[in-house]
Amino acid sequence: MCRHNDEMERKDLFDVVQVRGIDALPFLHSQCAADLMPLADGQLRWSALLSPQGRVQFVVAVIRESSDAWWLLVPFERGNALVATLRRFVFRRKVAIEINVDKAVLATETGLDTGIDGIRLSLVDRGSAPAALTRDALDRFISAGLSLIDEAAADRHLAHSLRLERFDAYSVKKGCYPGQEIVARTHFLGRNKRVLVRLAADPVVVWHSGDKVYVDGTEIGEIACAGRVGALAVLTQPVEPGHSLQLGTDRLVVMVADVIAGAS
Fold it and tell me: Is 53 exposed, middle or buried (0-12, 13-18, 19+ CB in 10 A)?
């Protein structure tokens, strides 16, 4: 099992990707699972970007500056990977996609509404930023039930399994986007049988995405998003809060702190 270290925790939680051009809105709307059309200037929405098989590759915060100017906040230093992914689908669209290393993401009282109580985000010039939001803040998102996907968890889970409808991060009503057919089929046929839970344990437990979760020696799921003091796991069977499970190759005892219900 991988170990956290202080250097890792000091890294920025989000890379900043900018998308510019007269086709920026239709391009992003066709690639993101979320419906971006209702967004007004200065608004933020979470979105999943999916594989053609409907698996979540990225969970990002999408910020509209104007119809032809957008920002994507990409967790875990995966900005370059997202840029490369999006550029493959540009074709003849008039759009430019690149990392902006001069911007930093802060948590501020007056920032953009993230849809998560107590978390507002601001995008500022790095030179004027007192301190960018680091990975130490990840547990705040985990507590809200939002799985920010790292490389190990990418292409592992359906959006429904991560309960991303709670954040309007995918739509079953908008037009086509990668994975849309799987999203619609899973939604309308009720085929999601996975359960999202928040796990907690003694502070000595180290969480890592991809670690397997067991009950009575039988594998029932894996960690989708790992923080410092907790994690979100996708399980193949229902469990109750307070239930004990085992984690990873060491079979460390952890507890189900919450079951994350879908949006009503």
Answer: exposed
Tell me the pLDDT of the chain (264 aa) as tens digits: 333 444 446 689 999 999 999 999 999 999 999 999 999 999 999 999 999 999 999 999 999 999 999 999 999 999 999 999 999 999 899 999 999 999 999 998 899 999 999 999 999 998 876 778 999 999 999 999 999 999 999 999 999 999 999 999 999 998 899 999 999 988 888 778 899 999 999 888 899 999 999 999 999 999 999 999 999 999 999 999 999 999 998 899 999 999 998 765
| Residue 172, H or E segment | none
Evaluate the CA torsion angle 254, 11, 143, 33 in order and state its sign: negative
pTM assigned to the model: 0.93
- Alpha-carbon distance of 64 to 68, in angstroms, equals 8
Q: Name 131's Cβ contacts closer than 8 Å, sequence gap at least 6.
A: 106
Contacts of residue 202, defined as CB under 8 A and 6 or more positions apart, other chains included, come to none
Taking alpha carbons only, the member of 198, 202, 165 closest to residue 184 is: 165
Listed in order, strand segments (DSSP E) in the chain are: 14-20, 43-50, 56-66, 69-75, 96-99, 103-116, 119-125, 195-200, 212-215, 218-226, 230-235, 244-247, 252-260
Distance CA 257, CA 242 (A): 6
